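Practice problem: predict the structure.
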Amino acid sequence: MRLTRRVSLLSVILAIASTLLWLAACGGSGSSSGGGGSTGRNAFLAVPEANAVAAYRVDPSSGSFKSVLGSPFTGGNSPISVVVHPSGKFVYSANQTGNDISLFDVDSNTGELKEVMPRTPAGLNPTAMIIDSGGDLIFVANETSNNVSVFSVSASDGTLTEIPGSPFPAGAKPVALALSPSGQFLYVGSGNLALVFGFTVTSGTGSLATIPGSPFTVGSAPFAMVVDPSGHFLYAANFGIDTVSGMSINSTTGALTLTSGSPFATGKNPISLAIHPSGKYLYVANLGDNTISAYTLDSTTGVATALVKSPFTSGTGPVFLTVDPGGNFVYVCNQTAKTISQFAINQDTGGIPSSTTTTSTSVSPGELVFAK
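Answer:
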């Protein structure tokens, strides 16, 4: 069970007060930006405690955040995972205690969000969500239902339609998803088992079929997974044994095979993974010791080699990290500190210096995603 990312009863009771405090902080400071003349890239943050999704404009040069006017935007109950459509027109949140998915329209000029009702039903406790590169399909891991829901996406208005045969069985407590860049293979991590379940995705329909040899053995509690940009390797964060498993992907069948030297040591309780857009570097958020582990990746073998100065100190309670689309910064969402830490990436070594720029979120942040 992912206790660190769940919402406590007390947090739910205080949600309204937390949201009002955040709105006051964002709306009353010089960091807000709502005009059509603002520049930068849109970023969206799940805020489970406030039942909302926050929106930012991010300067591509400095990496600094400016809150969009009116942010955070009220949505479903306990949004824990968020994705943005490749067009940038739509944002989706998986609402963990609401058992549904919210669709938001994105104002192209201001970045403001407007939820489109009604919400789309999912399974019980939707915990992870991913969208394919074309924006045609959304996959949702339902932790308590032990299955994966698959939805087709309307290109015109972003609405979701569950495909025939969905939801599909996906082992015990599915909590993590990874999709190959081609969209051909979907991988599901079990929160209770040291296993990754693999599926082929039928082109055109999105139907799932079990990959021969699935499930594949990894370490205890693979709470996060990521596929490298080449589609050759998958990495799984083993929360229970402080390692990352590296696996090669069979390009024909999608079957997984452990790479040489796998698993690779991390900090304590690795919970989130991100790969640099170049495919050269892997970053891991370690919840248990408030650090970020960094590695170089061998493009031929998939072997991960820790950087000399890794791990790097992060904020308190890092539960999620991501790399911006330009590959210039690592952003870390710190649940306990209620901040987002920003690390500049050394493009030659992949290193991230100890000095960071931090954005306060007032309430605990969840997942952070960027529009392309």
